[in-house]
Amino acid sequence: MSNQGNPSEQTPQARIGTLWGGAFSRSTDDAVRRLNDSLRFDWRLYDEDITGSIAWAEALAGAGVLAESERAALADGLERVRAEFAAGTFAPAPGDEDIHTAVERRLGELVGDVAGKLHTGRSRNDQVATDVLLWLLRVRESVQAALLDLAGALVEQAESARGAVMPGYTHFQPAQPLAVPHWWLGHFWALVRDVERLDTLAAAWRDKCPLGSGALAGTPYPVDRARLAARLGFTRPTPNSLDAVADRDHVAECLFALALLGTHLSRLAEDLIVYANPALGFVRLDERYSTGSSLMPQKRNPDPLELARGKAGRLIGHLGGFLATLKGLPSGYNKDLQEDKEPLFDAVDTLLELLPPLAGLVRTLAIDPDRMRAALDEGMLATDLADYLVSKGVPFRRAHGLAGQVVRLAESKGAAPSALALDDYRAISEVFEADVLDVFDFDAAVRRRGAVTGGAGDVDDQLARAQAWLAAR
User: Fold this and answer.
1) What is the CATH number of the domain that holds 278?
2) What is the pLDDT of residues 332-342, one digit of tens each?
3) Which residues are catalytic?
4) Residue 5 included in any domain
5) What pTM does this model have?
6) SS3 of 243, please?
7) Is the CB of residue 181 less than 8 Å from the CB of residue 159?
């Protein structure tokens, strides 16, 4: 029920208890409260909010604004509030519009009027900016840990697939033979970039502490912002208070990193979906990571992989939507910035939910080396045939055309290139000699592209580097 029409139903003291409202004669309409309030999703910032508040109390004490006894009472009360959140016993009140309001309201119930001094010189604008940065730095480690588990599963599969050869594809058409570990490690190195990208971003996030910026113009109290930043694990305070409270680059950067990670997962999922299809049969998923059909008893559906592919769109959408929110804002804090948290939280939750089953799926699937080798055809060695001619002194562009003629001749005869007579080859070019048949060895073709170039034959070197990278993490 709306309470818009009754100016006397909320006392001035009750309005002040919401962290604002002393200048208002009417309480906020219920519909506006439902739209405006964010406790339903920003409650997860409680730990960072309390950590930042304890540090702020210390800064106020250092500036002579609080007595040591007041600082101690606030710190003790805030730790008690933290313990309630951690235990799941914290009880929200009707006036708790966000996590900041909720913590300060409960702090006042525990320690009394001294709680009203905590917000001196501070705004929810610099408070929430700091909270989100601290939260990002913490959850980044959880995302990386889950990523490392999947990366480790890829390396385990690569290690166990030594000696296996498979078709490689471009444009999803047969291209050249690959060592199976080379394919696995192709996905591994993409995840390495994802992990290291988050490292790089975290270093940038630590380099800016917004606390002490106030609402937009700074704080009038002699707070030691450099010491405050260090206390919270940052390298330095932000140089401009107006920019600090509006800066959400870290949210956009995180959403980009997670969207790109989701894209990498989607590409891995797509490969495995295709390779698990019985028409190819390169891999077989463990039953624990497959689902069935309510109608067709024979079905083994790769639902976890399809969800990985689908959720990439969700992650990309969060990034695009948030950039659209940012692009029209004037300087300073605007309420639009409250839209940073739901996409950010959902993106992190999505990946923390997705990565563990993907790691399990990869770790438990079985490859079928015989099916992979059976899918190879000698047409994939046409480039090797051209390279053979290059070794005989033929310019590559000419060699490319001659190799193509061999492929066309073999197709017209319904035969593999290795089944052509030497006279067939020499009719195309007298450069061909009897040793041309040595080209048609898939394992040798893979070995020819070796460790020096980082090609398909560098399995030992790649595995050693991948294992060393994982060990270093």
Assistant:
1) 1.20.200.10
2) 999 999 999 99
3) 171, 293
4) no
5) 0.91
6) helix
7) yes
